[in-house]
Design goal:
Blueprint (H helix, E strand, L loop, with lengths): L2 E10 L9 H16 L1 H12 L5 E3 L3 E2 L2 E3 L6 H11 L4 H13 L2 E3 H8 L4 H9 L21 H13 L6 E10 L16 E10 L5 E8 L4 H14 L12 E3 L29
Antiparallel strand pairs: 1-8, 1-9, 2-8, 3-8, 4-5, 6-7
Length: about 280
């Protein structure tokens, strides 16, 4: 069965206890279909999923245009850095390795470069040669980089890594209490009484952009998909939806077929934007 890839723009309307994740979204959609269409319809789609023919496949969210970084750093890369580029900069070399280990996302343009065959290790070499900006891995468009000394390049790398970015997604800790609903006890000394617990919530700023890709099976209509997603958006996603968490809106009219991430011809690698267990 063929699939078409679309993108969904999500606007959070409350804090979240459960982060957006591809597998959790899938499960939520199946439950939404059960409430809307009944058990028989859902049983059919569950069987289709077991037979590797699910009705839809979600990506993990792309938040503020940041995609997962990917690429293998070879022994040849580390040898070049260790014995040539940073041969006489032991402390800086360790700091640089720590920085690249922490780097987890890139913008869309760099992600497309990686998809099109530019190796991550080549980008890092460009950084150490002063040709790319470490913060976003973009190629420098101005200035003379040929005469830069390695000390100047390292200073630039470490300074850029210390710049604070706008916190559009923040985690907060909320203290809540659980109550024994049999006797409505509020005495912590009573067995089964009130107990305090910590709840971590995810707060998105108003200008946070959340993009989720989804592959939809061609015989599963967009209307059915939208109705199920609308059910989740109204009733809440994830934990504590019953007390108003996980509320969101999405732009129904923004379904535009996404063609840039189609499989490349003669590709020998792939990148997965979803949670999955390799077969």
């Amino acid at each position: 069965m063929k699939y078409k890839t679309y993108k969904i723009n999500v606007k959070p309307e409350s804090s979240f206890v459960t982060p957006f994740q591809s597998d959790t979204l899938f499960g939520s959609m199946i439950w939404a279909l059960r409430f809307i269409e009944g058990d028989e319809s859902v049983k059919k789609e569950v069987e289709n999923t077991k037979n590797y023919n699910p009705p839809f496949i979600f990506s993990n969210p792309v938040i503020n245009g940041q995609y997962p970084i990917f690429g293998v750093l070879s022994d040849k890369f580390f040898d070049k850095v260790d014995t040539e580029i940073l041969k006489d900069h032991d402390i800086e070399r360790i700091k640089f390795y720590k920085l690249i280990k922490k780097k987890s996302t890139v913008n869309r343009e760099i992600f497309k470069e990686l998809l099109n065959g530019i190796k991550l290790e080549e980008m890092y070499i460009d950084v150490l040669e002063g040709k790319r900006v470490f913060r976003n891995l973009e190629l420098k468009t101005s200035g003379n980089t040929e005469n830069l000394k390695i000390g100047e390049i390292l200073d630039e790398i470490f300074k850029s890594s210390k710049r604070k970015s706008d916190k559009k997604v923040q985690m907060s800790s909320i203290v809540r209490n659980s109550i024994n609903r049999l006797n409505l006890s509020k005495d912590n000394n009573d067995e089964g009484g009130t107990k305090l617990f910590e709840q971590i919530e995810i707060n998105y700023s108003d200008d946070t952009e959340i993009l989720i890709y989804v592959k939809i099976r061609e015989d599963f209509t967009i209307e059915r998909f939208q109705e199920a997603l609308k059910y989740i958006s109204y009733n809440g996603y994830g934990k504590k939806a019953s007390i108003g968490k996980g509320q969101f809106e999405f732009e129904i009219g923004n379904f535009a077929e996404e063609k840039e991430f189609l499989l490349r011809e003669n590709a020998d690698k792939f990148i997965v934007l979803s949670n999955y267990i390799p077969d």
